[in-house]
Amino acid sequence: MKQTSEILFQDKRLGFFLYLVVEALMFATLFATYILFTPASVGADPSEVYELRTVVLTSVFLLSSSGTLMIAEKGLKTWDRKKIWIGLGTTFLLGSIFMGLEIHEFYKYVHEGYTITMNNFLSSFYVLVGLHASHVAFGLGWMILLMGQFKQKLPRSLFIEKHKIFNYYWHFVDVIWVLIILIVYVPYLF
Amino acid sequence: MNVPFIGEVPSDIVVSWIFVSLIGVLLLWWLTKKEQWPTIWEYARTTDNRKIGTMYILFAFLFFIRGGMDAMFIRSQLAVPESEFWVFQSQKYNEVFTTHGTVMIFFVAMPLLIGLMNIAVPLQLGANDLAFPYLNAISFWLFVSGAVIFNMAFFFNAAPNAGWTAYAPLSSDTFTTGPNNNYYIFGLQISGMGTILTAINMIVTIIRLRAPGMKLTRMPLFPWATLVTSFLIIIAFPVLTVALLLLTFDRLYGTSFFLGELGSPIYYQHLFWIFGHPEVYILILPAFGIFSDIISTFSRKRIYGYRSMVIAIALIGLLGFMVWAHHMFTVGLGALANSVFAITTMLIAVPTGIKVFNWLFTMRKGVVRIKTPMLFSLGFIPTFVLGGVTGVMLAVAAADYQYHDSYFVVAHFHYTMIGGTILGAFAGIYYYYPKMTGKVLDETLGRWHFWLFIIGFHLTFMPQHFAGLNGMPRRVYTYSWDDGLFLLNFVSTIGAFVMGASMLFVVWNLYKTHRYGEKVGKDPWDGRTLEWSVDSPAPEHPFDPVPQVNSRDAFWYAKISEESLPAAENPRPSPIPVQTIQPVVLAGILGVMSIGFIYQWVWMQVIGGVGVLSFFILRSLTDERKKAYRKEEES
């Protein structure tokens, strides 16, 4: 017979996947908004705003963080505490660098005069990419909490549960970033 | 009215403050005298589905009174042509119909149905609670928080005033300044979050927590309706969330998504109705489920055409996403779009018709007992059919140019929302009252309630069809003697007060039952499904042992063969309940944060935001699973 923790984890996983569906639909609506309003008839055009260098850099850091998280996932399977630490730690580091670059990007745009009120292209850009960035920030906080709980020695099955739920979240946020590259940046960079 | 230290305040607000303060003091005094505080403390900390469901219904009833009073004000103002009733003209009238609509849909109809789902669905499945009891409490308190935020607006003379749809650009800060529509946005965002979480909880419960042997195809129809409804919620509500988010940016941060030369008001309408049309099916499908179970029980027959009933629910849910633009026929989307949406709209009549015939066939040759829940179901069928027929009329895009924004539409949706959802909720409350409290509501008073309500209802809304066809527009606070609408409106107003009076019988009935009613056993209605196999009121952890289900209506067939349901051999573990005040705290913090945004007090937004984030940490550190998992690890 299956263990209690296993069955309750499966409940939670299904619930969390449904929650991610909700999130995906919110992002889908914001993507639609962006497509609808971009490019705008007045104000800045996306091609003059975006810079290839920033997009490549942010993407490298965020997408590779999904890879490093897999080290932790492997560690969970064999309960290799070192792997979990390394996986979580590097993921956190890469995520933080992404966050820094993202803040820098927004800061630079605003300094160049591309503010959220300039036109609807920029409005929808900031709302969409900003929502994604806040997801990354939330994920960073989540990782700190997770590392704290790892140190605290929760029951092993509970820690694995919490870690796995976080993994789904982080990969989801990465998938959204891929869509942002494809829908938001790429059409206006090349 | 001039109030010292505050200034000019409309007199209805002054009266409300005095009235509510008095009631509040009386309530506090009564609670203390009766020593009810421990009970309140218990309910505030509970995660039990029955208790949460009961609270949903209780709060919905409170807001029903508020929304009902708004309706009385509307009808009083419209009773005679060129009238000046109290303060309800022009902007005040806009506020009163906006709050009436919003309160009735989001804070009455939704919580009534979700409350009934909470009480009945786990019991009908043979589950010991919802999948996530803690999350369920969070959902409930988010609903309360959102509703309190929304209802606060009126008391601070800032009631939302752009209609329940809050169409932009009217709802943008260019045309409706002040905090009014901020209250609308944040009230709906917070309670909407609660609704989404409830939907997730319901889906996981239905998919994973059914008793052994309870296949999906053996479920009663209420859980089926709940399942489809929950999927509609998780698809429709995120769109509303984003629409309101963009509106927030327009109102607070100077963007122009929905207004000005750059923005697109039509885009708001699309977003709103992509949410809004599924929303009306979210409101009606659970009622269909409740009626199906009640009609089957009181006809002593299996539901006729079970499979077609399930398919019909699913089809209605699916088609519900393909019809949103029928709210926008007069916008000018073009002949092709209008034709497509007209046809999909008419198609919905087919599965709905199937359901109506199945209900009739269920009763045919059945042993029909007309108790109050059944009476409401019988009242529902013709009423809802009328609403459906006018719906098909409205679906004719070309004709809709005539009906659009007239009282014909008002009559139509009240026939579906009251005739369907509210009658369904009443039927469900009378039916499940024993499972909530252990007592059956008084039959005679129930009948008074039904007859007054249904007569009042038809008196109110039947004439509105004709007022609409004669050209009376909705959302307008007066009309002239020359319009020839006096008699229709006057009858309508009388009907509204009859409906209002019928609700007094509910209050009387609650009092009488509470005071003199006797406890009933597990199965007062001679029911067919699992909820009638457990005690009334349903205890926490009701199924011990968990029953093995071998057919549809298994409980009924066990009763016939005079056996008890066999116990399942290896039931899955139950969800872990917990006593905690955390959900109330979260609701409070979110309330504070919302007020910060509504009045744009940044310091308050920061405090609220930090509070919410700290709450996540607190929640994670006090996880109730810790104990259970540790025990498992040690064994």
Describe this structure in words.
The complex is a heterodimer of chains A (190) and B (635). By secondary structure, chain A is mainly alpha-helical. Chain A has one domain (4-35, 51-189): Up-down Bundle (Four Helix Bundle (Hemerythrin (Met), subunit A)). Helices cover 86% and strands 0% of the residues of chain A. Chain A has helices at residues 4-37, 46-49, 52-78, 81-111, 120-152, 156-189. Chain B has 635 residues and is an all-alpha fold. Chain B has a single domain, classed as Cytochrome c oxidase-like, subunit I domain (Cytochrome C Oxidase, Chain A), CATH 1.20.210. At the A-B interface, helix 1, helix 5 and helix 6 of A face helix 6, helix 7, helix 19 and helix 20 of B.
Write the layout of secondary structure elements.
The complex is a heterodimer of chains A (about 190) and B (about 625).
Chain A: H1 4-37, H2 46-49, H3 52-78, H4 81-111, H5 120-152, H6 156-189
Helix pairs in contact in A: 1-5, 1-6, 3-4, 3-6, 4-5, 5-6
Chain B: E1 2-3, E2 7-8, H1 11-33, H2 37-45, H3 49-78, H4 90-125, H5 133-155, H6 180-208, H7 221-252, H8 265-298, H9 306-319, H10 335-347, H11 349-363, H12 372-395, H13 397-403, H14 407-437, H15 443-469, H16 486-516, H17 554-560, H18 582-598, H19 602-621, H20 625-634
Antiparallel strand pairs in B: 1-2
Pathway (chain B): Energy metabolism; oxidative phosphorylation
Pfam families (chain B): COX1
InterPro entries (chain B): Cyt_c_oxase-like_su1_dom, Cyt_c_oxase-like_su1_sf, Cyt_C_Oxase_1, Cyt_c_Oxase_su1_BS, Cyt_c_oxidase_su1_bac
Distance linking N and C termini of chain A? 57 Å
The name of the CATH topology of chain B is Cytochrome C Oxidase, Chain A
Stretches with pLDDT under 50, minimum 5 residues of chain A: none
Task: Indicate the multimeric state.
Answer: heterodimer
pLDDT < 50 stretches of chain B: none
**Proportion of β residues of chain B?**
under 5%
How much helix, percentage-wise, in residues of chain A? Answer: over 70%
Tell me the greatest interface. A-B, 44 and 52 residues
Task: Name the CATH architecture of chain A.
Answer: Up-down Bundle
Number of E strands of chain B: 2
Estimated share of beta-strand residues of chain A: under 5%
What structural class do helix, strand and pairing data of chain A support? mainly alpha
What is the number of helical segments of chain B per DSSP (H or I, 4+ residues)?
20
Supply the CATH architecture of chain B. Answer: Up-down Bundle
Largest sheet of chain A: none
